[in-house]
Amino acid sequence: MGFTISQKIFSERLRSGDSVEFGKEIGVAVDQCLTQDSTGTMAWLEFESLGIDAAKPDVVVSYVDHTNACFKGESSEDHLFLQTAASRFGAIFSKPGNGVCHQVHYERFGRPGALLLGSDSHTPTAGALGMLGIGVGGMDVAVALGGGLFYLKVPRVIRIDLSGKLPWGVGAKDVILEVLRILTVKGGVGRILEYGGDGAHSLDVPQRATITNMGAETGATTSVFPSDEITRGFFKSQKRENAWKEIKPDPDAEYERIIEIDLSSLKPLVAMPGSPDNVKSMEEARGTKINQVHIGSCTNGSWRDLYIASRIMEGKTVHAGCEVMVVPGSRQVLQMLIKDGSLERLVNAGCRIMEPGCGPCIGMGFVPGAGHLSLRSVNRNWYGRGGNKDCLIALSSVEVCAASALQGEIADPRELPVVVLPSPEFIIDDSMLLHPSGKETEIIRGKNIAPLKPQSPLPEKIKAEVLITLGDGISTDDILPAGPLTQHLRSNLPEIARFAFYYLDETFSQRAREAKCGAIAAGENYGQGSSREHAALAPRELGISCIFAKSFARIHRKNLINCGIAPLVCNTDSLHQGDELEIDFSGVSEGIVRMKNLTNKEDINAQINMTALEIDILRSGGALAHAKKPM
Ligand code: MIC
Ligand code: SF4
Q: CA-CA distances (angstroms) from residue 45 to 8, 40, 145, 156, 454?
């Protein structure tokens, strides 16, 4: 039996386990790690707590992109900590303004065939280069920085077979919105999406990156394209041709499922507010009034995207009832836009410009008003995303965003003159990437950086009160909102914990602190979305010891275990806020947790669904306590 692309990459770095067959538990060596500021302060503090001298993987980059604007001084202090920690432990530091981690990483560091672990859920963007990028929580990155293996069960592979060519006005974003329409936000869980077919070879690397980036929204472990002549061309233009090699699946590789998409027949799509899989056709969405357009983010912040937007808007004016914010994905993109006149075209059309970074995507500026509809080229649109729980966000391609900005309502770009893309001239200037100076660097910590508390082993029995009951699809943005409210508190757990479930129930943190030991009950796909470890660390800080849900999203489930919270699977319909539970962990190794609901006298057996290693981590109290245990 031949291998898929991901099996090839896993098998080359297999250090624990005997085969890369689906479902096998394996431990793989990690080649590259990335961290970003909002998850990175914790990841580097966690790495430091392991007492290891220097980061081990070949390429380690610490980016600042989420808190560039420094609305609060704490963020500036965090940046200095990250810069000095990177220098001390041997990582490259990407300064604020250099761009979003995923965009810069594929431009300057990624390479076909490598395995990248990143403390951000959109790390799969790197799959555009024919490598595997996997988003994880900070503790998994900390362990990998120390040279530890990354353990996972080999995911099933869905092949997405692309044929034809995208017509004018239809973007790579429409390909991934079509995939989301088919798979929904749960269809990728436990799976890798591998793209192939003639149509795949018609897409350039930035288009592929849009698709691999937003594969995260299907819940997939990662997404990957083959590395071909198009990839080689990209490496050449980035002056890194030596890093290129061909990667393709074996012809007899086995897939769980093959999804066929004819690019020529695709039409523009829009994900309407609430969820990235709330996908509607242009016919259904057009004419909807919009207040804002945001073009940019790690999904659609490439030069290709912004160039097209500038040509669509050239010589025209943004609609009076609409504001437009353009945010280049990287400084390289910005430099190219300056050089080729795109920036001038955008500004002349009435667009506003923000420095390269995450910006509005994570609610750092350009926060829409209550009930306002913001059309964005970003990847997420849950309620509460974008910095205001009452705003509405719709997702589309840059082509749809630009056409709609001119009309003040969702509009069809296919009716506008065709934009022909010239060959890009990439500007290579790595001056905002700082190289480490080594062990003598003093790490500078602001007051905001609260020391980590030690993790303590899981008790055999606990009593806990159900503090909140929740429905399906609770995202990490629901658990711990991002944006200006919390972004500066990412290295201060006691402070950030005050905002746990803030948009859903402002009293939660206070009640949790009073209860001392609490539990949460939820529906399907609990914790979907970001890799934000704080969505597990903050509840832990508030004394939450277990979460009962019908199912869990991959990264969050692992973050819970790493933080010493038990993710327990059961039917949660009979649990109510205020129920007193007696939970018995003595059967954990057999995969069962027995629980008595003292309020309604019901006995429930919850499934633990964990590997032996995960059980060991949970028993130890978390990943750091486990990593420090003598072998
Ligand atoms: C996001 O898009 O939600 C983030 C902000 O990039 C997160 C990480 C974080 O919470 O800092 C992610 O996707 O992992
Ligand atoms: Fe930044 Fe948004 Fe991408 Fe997250 S999804 S890394 S906030 S641009």
A: 33, 8, 12, 34, 12
> Is the distance from CB of 103 to CB of 84 less than 8 angstroms?
no
What average pLDDT does the structure give for the chain? 96
Q: What is the mean pLDDT of residues 229-253?
A: 98
Homologous superfamily (CATH) of 269-415 is: Aconitase, domain 3 (3.30.499.10)
What separation in Å is there between the alpha carbon of 598 and the centre of ligand 2?
A: 43
Alpha-carbon distances of 479 from 296, 384, 475, 538, 556, rounded to whole Å: 25, 10, 7, 9, 11
pTM, to two decimals: 0.96
Q: How far is the CA of 34 from the centre of ligand 1 (A)?
A: 13
Where in the chain do CATH 3.30.499.10 domains reside? 269-415
Judge if the beta carbon of residue 38 lies within 6 A of ligand 1: yes
Using the mean position of ligand 2's atoms as its centre, give its distance from the Cα of residue 428 in Å: 23
Mutate to test the pocket of ligand 1, among 139, 185, 480, 530 (most ligand atoms within 8 A of CB): 530
Numbered ranges of CATH 3.20.19.10 in the chain: 461-624
Asked whether 395 lines ligand 2 (CB < 6 A), one says no
Per-residue pLDDT for 631 more than 80? Answer: no
pLDDT surpassing 70 at residue 442: yes
Domain at 461-624, CATH from 3.40.190.10, 3.20.20.140, 3.20.19.10, 3.40.30.10 = 3.20.19.10
